[in-house]
Design goal:
Elements (H helix, E strand, L loop, with lengths): L1 E6 L5 H13 L3 E6 L4 H7 L5 E4 L6 H6 L5 E4 L9 H6 L3 E4 L5 H16 L15 E5 L3 H12 L3 E5 L5 H6 L3 E2 L3 H7 L2 E4 L13 H4 L7 E4 L8 H10 L4 E4 L6 H8 L3 E3 L9 H21 L11
Parallel strand pairs: 1-2, 1-3, 3-4, 4-5, 6-7, 6-9, 7-8, 9-10, 10-11, 11-12
This protein binds 3-phosphoglyceric acid.
3-phosphoglyceric acid binds next to loops.
C-alpha cells in the first residue's frame, strides 16, 4: 500500500523520518508531498495512493474523486473541518483524526497568548499578571482541559462549559461548571476558545458574547477563525476600548482591525498551535500507526466519518 504524507505546512524532519520508518517497517510504501503551492498538486499526487496523512490540508470531493485507490485519510491532529466527510463516506474512505496528540502544544500557546496580551505584547507599558484572574474555557476537550490545568497551576480560577460534557465531570476535573455561555463570558477575564468549526459553531461567537466580558477582558482563540463573527468582534472592540483579542490565524479583516485597535489585537501569521517538535512527532507517528493498524487489523477506532 502507498501512504502519502501531504502537508502544506510540513512536520519536522524527525517526525517525517519517524512516519517513514513505521510505514516502511510494515511493508508499505512511503511518499511525501510538502509545501505544495497549489491544491492541484495534491489532486495530482493522490492518484495512486492508498492512504493519506494530512494536517490542515484540504481533502475535498475533487481530491477524493482523483484518488481511486484511497482507503483511509488520517488528519494528524484534532480538527477535521478540512475534510469533506460526506464525500469520503460516499467514496468508502475512512477518515480518522489523532485526538489529544497535539493538545499540549495548543494549550501552551493559549497560555502564552494570555501572558503576551497581559504584558501589552511585550511593550514596556505597565501590564498585568494572569495570576488571580478568571479563566473561562469554552469546550472542555483535550485542549480545553489542559488549558484549565495550566491556568490553575498559574493561580487562575477556572470555569468551563461544554455541551457534550456533564457539569459533574467538569467539576471533577477541578473547574467550576458554567451554566451558560453568557455566564462564562460575563464572569471571566480570559475566555479561551476550543470549539471545532461546524455548521453550528461557525460565526457563533459575536458581539453579544464578547461584549459581556468584564473590564479588560481578553478573548483567546486557538481553535478556528471561522467560529468568530468578525463583524461582531469589531463592534465589541470599537465599543469597549478595554477588550482584547488574540488568535492563532488572522481574521479576514485583520489589517483593518490592527490599524484600528493596535496592541489590543494580535494574530499569528500562520497557524502555529500544533507546530512543536513534540506535537509533530506525537500526531505524525500516531497517524502512521493508525494507518498500519487499519490495514493490518481493520481497526477504525478513531474514525470520524459515517460508514457507507
Ligand atoms: C488541529 O486541529 O489539530 C490543529 O488546528 C493543528 O492544525 P495543523 O496540524 O494544521 O497545525
Amino acid at each position: 500500500m502507498k501512504v502519502l504524507v501531504a502537508t502544506q505546512k510540513p512536520f519536522s524532519a524527525a517526525a517525517v523520518a519517524g512516519i517513514r520508518e513505521i510505514i516502511e517497517a510494515s511493508g508499505n510504501e512511503f511518499a511525501a508531498l510538502e509545501k505544495y503551492p497549489e491544491q492541484a498538486d495534491l489532486v495530482a499526487a493522490v492518484r495512486d495512493v492508498d492512504a493519506l496523512i494530512i494536517r490542515s490540508d484540504k481533502v475535498t470531493a475533487e481530491v477524493l474523486d482523483a484518488a481511486a485507490n484511497l482507503k483511509i485519510v488520517v488528519r494528524a491532529g484534532a480538527g477535521y473541518d478540512n475534510v469533506d466527510l460526506e464525500a469520503a463516506t460516499a467514496h468508502n474512505v475512512v477518515v480518522m483524526n489523532t485526538p489529544g496528540q497535539n493538545a499540549n502544544a495548543v494549550a501552551e500557546l493559549a497560555i502564552a497568548m494570555m501572558i503576551y496580551m497581559s504584558r501589552g505584547q511585550f511593550t514596556p507599558a505597565t501590564g498585568s499578571e494572569i495570576q488571580g484572574k478568571t479563566l473561562g474555557i469554552q469546550a472542555f476537550g483535550n485542549v480545553g482541559r489542559l488549558v484549565g490545568k495550566k491556568g490553575e497551576a498559574l493561580g487562575m480560577s477556572v470555569m468551563a462549559i461544554d455541551p457534550f460534557i456533564p457539569a459533574e465531570s467538569i467539576a471533577q476535573a477541578g473547574a467550576t461548571p458554567a451554566e451558560s455561555l453568557e455566564q462564562l463570558y460575563s464572569s471571566c477575564d480570559f475566555v479561551s476558545v476550543h470549539i471545532p468549526a461546524t455548521p453550528q459553531t461557525i460565526g457563533s461567537i459575536g458581539y453579544d458574547l464578547i461584549s459581556k466580558m468584564p473590564k479588560g477582558g481578553c478573548l483567546v482563540n486557538t481553535a478556528r477563525k471561522e467560529v468568530i463573527d468578525e463583524a461582531g468582534l469589531e463592534k465589541a472592540l470599537e465599543e469597549r476600548p478595554d477588550l482584547k483579542y488574540i488568535t492563532d490565524v488572522a481574521p479576514g479583516n485583520y489589517d483593518a482591525l490592527k490599524e484600528k485597535f493596535g496592541t489590543r489585537i494580535f494574530a499569528t501569521p500562520k497557524k502555529m498551535g500544533a507546530q512543536t517538535a513534540e506535537a509533530n512527532m506525537n500526531a505524525g507517528l500516531a497517524a502512521a500507526r493508525q494507518i498500519v493498524d487499519f490495514f493490518e487489523t481493520g481497526n477504525t477506532r478513531f474514525q470520524v466519518n459515517g460508514k457507507k
